[in-house]
Task: structure prediction
Amino acid sequence: MKILVLNISGQNPEVDRFLSELRTRIPEVEIQTHESQPGEIHVLWNIQEYLDQGIKFFLLPYTKEGVSNAWIEVIGCQRQGRPVKLLPVMFEGGKAPAGLAAAKYVRMDGGTTDVEREWNLFARGLRK
Result:
């Protein structure tokens, strides 16, 4: 299974640790990242291009650096009936965008005492 990380910053140690542990916990996961370039507009990701590559899961890190707006395109694909899934993960200092304030997310920000439960929630999200 393929996951694209919708991250606005390619250099976040928390996200890197999460991805490393994800590879250990679920070895069949193939992780692809997109590092934004200077001046790149985060709304214009062309999610269809990634769908054509077989990517169905989009990990959306909520980090102190901010949140990519690419989630808007993923939600648009869901509304069109495409089989895509957004997987939001909260990291230290992160905040959900207003449009996703009510969406369920996995906590990896130290705000939970049961990290194993959060990993199980994430893994369940990959199976549904």
